[in-house]
Amino acid sequence: MPSQHPEEIGYGHVVKGYVTRTYGGLPRYLVLNGGRYLSPRWWHTTRFTRHLLSDAAAITDEELEALLGYEWRSRLTAAWLIGVDRRERFRARIGDLLLASEVCYSGNAYCFALARFGTHADAEILTAYLDRYLPRTDLHYDQSAALGALLRLDARLGTRHADRFTEVDGLWDEWVKGVERLGYPSQAPAELHRWTDLQCEFADGWRRL
Question: Which pLDDT tens digit goes with each residue over 162-171?
Answer without folding.
Answer: 999 999 999 9
